[in-house]
Amino acid sequence: MQILVWVFEVLFISSLVGVFPLSLAETTSPGVCSEADRAALLAFKAKIVKDTTGILSSWIGRDCCGGDWEGVQCNPAGRVTTLALQGPVKDSSMYMKGTLSSSLGSLPFLQVLVISGMKLITGPIPDSFSKLTRLTQLVLEDNSLQGNIPSGLGLLSHLQTLSLAGNHLKGPVPPSLGNLRNLGMINLGRNSLSGPIPASLKNLHLLQSFDLSFNSLSGFIPEFLGQFRNITFIDLSNNQLSAHLPISMFNLVSLSYLSLSHNLLTGTIPEQVGNLKSLTSLSLSSNKFIGHIPASISRLQNLWSLNLSRNGFSDPLPDVSNRGIPSLLSIDLSFNNLSLGTVPKWITDRQLSDVNLAGCKLRGSLPRFTRPDSLSSIDLSNNFLTGSISTFFTKMTSLQKVKLSNNLLKFDLSELKVPDGISSIDLHSNQVCGSLSSILNNRTSSFLEVIDVSNNLISGTIPEFSEGLNLKELNIGSNKIAGQIPSSISNLIELERLDVSRNLITGTIPMSLGRLANLHWLDLSINRLTGRIPTSLLGIKFMRHASFRANRLCGEIPQGRPYDIFPASAYSHNLCLCGKPMPPCRGKKQETSQ
């Protein structure tokens, strides 16, 4: 869903006239750099104590307008009009560390100010930015900015785009932002803002994109949202908004994306939802909605993603005809008060990519889908499904993730024939039997990253692991698996989480386990392991959780972080483990903590 949000916002920004990509493409030859503007830029550079992006290393020489100063554009008079410094958000090694200098407020001709994805720029947004009265684009996304949003930003009357998302800003949304009548896009998401959505924002009649998601905003969703006739994108998810949905919102015939998930909203979905004829994505998950899902939802001709999970919706589901919701690709009705019994035909007979019906009181055999080749993700967990799985995956050639946990499925792992491209299999808490070698062998796909078959009836031993596997999570806990942990476990070089607890595993913990450098969760508890905890585990630097409880281990616990600071319960009920955090080993003084 976050990818979907990103696509909507990129498309929106790119569509605005005069946005920064167009400004950067100006072909007019700039004049010689103004000395005052050059000084303001260098004062900003001085406040950045570390720059691994290398951008500021290009800021040398007298002429900041000659094209050599990366991210700087000027007008023919030599005045800086654009400062656009964009770091790669997903590359943690590329950042700027420091604070925003108030000197940037001394660039009177600045129209575009973009400092985004720099991760470690801290401190407040300078009040001096209120002097940038020519500014049309202000984007300070994905840094670590702190403090309140300056009310002075409401003086920037030409502003068309305001994005301060992905920082540590707190306090209220300033009512002064309602003065920005030219604003087409506002994104204050992923901060710690609180209080209500200010009534003054009703003045933003040109608004097309409105994102206040992932904050701590409270109060109700204002009626004035229904006045934004041009709006295409609304995301108020992950807040503490309450009360009913305003009826006015369902007059927004241009609205394409609406997410109100993870709030405290109550009441029902009104029949007027069918008026949102442009809607492509609707997410109301994790609220307190009740009542029936309205039949008018079938009139949403462009809707391709529908998420109503984790509410209190009740039977019956609307009777959707073959022509209803014709664009639907993804549906999530999980964890409501629905007692479906079987999956409705209007779901099984469609060409869907994602089907999520967890906790819908499904019974009987696994459903048959008319177009199994289109499915990429299925979640039918927490139901009462029974029987075998032998033909379920037939022709599911595009399937990547399947979750069938917490059902009553009863089959042998040898019957499991999964598609080659699958990346995640979750079958925990069923009645699955057989041997792990049926799914972990030299034919196991390199695409497979997650296997969870815990809390079943699986027996046999842990098979040898061949090279080339890309497993990140392996959970085989709470079964009847015996034998030893093979030393070839070290071939699972991508492994992040390993749980073999509550089995009958014997032998020693292999030294090779210490080669799993990405491991951060390890649970070997309640088995019959003997010998020592190998010191090779000290080579795993990012271990956050480990449990060796209730085995037959003996000897000194590896004396180094984090093993010597895990709670003693992680080592309890063994034969004779000693050393921090347990009592000292006999004949060896234990050092006191510094």
TrEMBL record:
Assigned keywords, A-Z:
Cell membrane, Leucine-rich repeat, Membrane, Repeat, Signal, Transmembrane, Transmembrane helix
Query: Membrane spanning segments where?
Result: none
The signal sequence is 1-25
- Report the locations given in the UniProt record: Cell membrane
Enumerate the spans annotated as Leucine-rich repeat-containing N-terminal plant-type domain. 35-75
Key word Transmembrane present: yes
**What coarse category fits the chief subcellular location reported for this protein?**
membrane
Q: Does the record bear Transmembrane helix in its keywords?
A: yes
GO terms under cellular component: plasma membrane
Question: Which InterPro entries does the protein's record reference?
Answer: Leu-rich_rpt (IPR001611), Leu-rich_rpt_typical-subtyp (IPR003591), LRR_dom_sf (IPR032675), LRR_N_plant-typ (IPR013210), StomDev_PlantInt_Reg (IPR052941)
- Report the domain of life of the source organism: Eukaryota
Name the UniProt record assigns to this protein: Leucine-rich repeat-containing N-terminal plant-type domain-containing protein
Q: Origin organism of this chain? A: Gossypium harknessii
